[in-house]
Every structure is written in C-alpha cells, then in structure tokens.
Design brief:
The chain has 148 residues and is mainly α. It has a domain of 98 residues: Cytochrome Bc1 Complex, Chain D, domain 2, CATH 1.10.760.10. Helix content is 55%, strand content 0%. It has 8 helices and no strands. The longest helix has 18 residues. The chain binds heme C.
C-alpha cells in the first residue's frame, strides 16, 4: 500500500529508497512489539520443574512425548502451532490453568501451571533465558504465540 502510494506520487523515488521503506515496513511490527517467545522468557530450571509436574499430571492423557493421542490434542509441533499461532500466551495459560487436567480442573498452583507452560515452550524449541515465566495470565497476555 504505502509503497504503491510512493510510486504514484513520487515517480522519481529510487531503488535504494524502496529498499529502505520495505525494510522499515517489515521491521516496524517487530520493533513495536513487546516481549516475544524468541526472547528467552522462561528458565531451564523452571522448565525442568514443569517437566516433573507434566509427567505426573498431564502425561497420562497428552502422552510423555507431548504428542497426545486420539483423545487428547498434541502440545508440541506443527499441530499445536496450527491451533495456537496468533493467540496469546495468556490465553494458553488460562486454558491450562482453568480447564486442565480435565478430571480436576485448576487443581495445581499457578506456579506449577507456569512451570508446565515453560516445559511446553522448551519442548517446542523456544529458547530459555534468565527470568522465569510469570505465573499470571495478565502478564502473559501481551506475549503472542508465534514461531518467528
Ligand atoms: C484426563 C485427560 C487429560 C489430562 C490429565 C490433561 N488434559 Fe489437557 N486436554 C485433554 C483433552 C481431552 C483436551 C481437548 C479438549 C479441550 O481442549 O478442552 C485437552 C486440551 C488441552 C490443551 C489445549 C490444546 C489445544 O491445542 O487445544 C492444553 C494446552 C492442555 N490440554 C494442557 C494440559 C496440561 C498442561 C495438563 C496437565 C496439567 C493437561 N492438559 C492434563 C485431556 C487432558
């Protein structure tokens, strides 16, 4: 849109300017965004606590490798990203912490749900970092689930 506009109204614009405008248009959403899944928003230690909780409270349905089965959806890979890409981490946290496990919804602490979410992020190969993932849906709400 913007580039077309420039063409129509400033026919003397040169190639370098077009590259610059294109680069800025592509970069702008990234610069203006807050935290992203690429920033290392959970710790390794948190994810390993989450792995233990997952094994005892979630794996019976979603399977040890997170791939799910015919009754419970996968929490890993393309099929998981297909459902969750473009939604927020807050929404995923709320889904887990209010509806899971289906036989005892909301029965874990908020910290345990956050640790399990950290484990799910680690299993989906998002990088870890030096601060723990917040155990609070409001703080996770602005973080989009995105594979890039
Ligand atoms: C008794 C079986 C069972 C257990 C235990 C269980 N789940 Fe689930 N889970 C399901 C089923 C069935 C669904 C699909 C229906 C739904 O979305 O409510 C689901 C859906 C989900 C979803 C949404 C996935 C999607 O792509 O829509 C997430 C996230 C999730 N579970 C996480 C967890 C976590 C974390 C735990 C452990 C705290 C857990 N579940 C324990 C059965 C289970």
């Amino acid at each position: 849109m913007e580039i077309q506009y420039m063409f129509l109204h400033f026919p003397t614009i040169n190639k370098a300017q077009i590259y610059l405008i294109t680069a800025l248009t592509l970069l702008y959403p990234k610069l203006s965004m807050g935290q992203s899944l690429q920033d290392g928003i959970y710790t390794e230690e948190q994810a390993s606590r989450g792995a233990e909780e997952y094994a005892s409270r979630c794996a019976s349905c979603h399977s040890a490798d997170l791939r799910g089965n015919s009754n419970s959806p996968s929490l890993i890979g393309l099929s998981f990203m297909f459902i969750w890409e473009g939604r927020s981490l807050g929404e995923l946290f709320t889904k887990m912490s209010t509806e899971m496990p289906t036989d005892q919804p909301g029965s874990l602490s908020q910290q345990s749900y956050a640790a399990i979410l950290a484990f799910i992020l680690q299993s989906n190969e998002f990088p870890s970092g030096s601060t723990e993932l917040a155990s609070n849906a409001d703080r996770l709400e602005p973080i989009p689930i995105s594979s890039q």
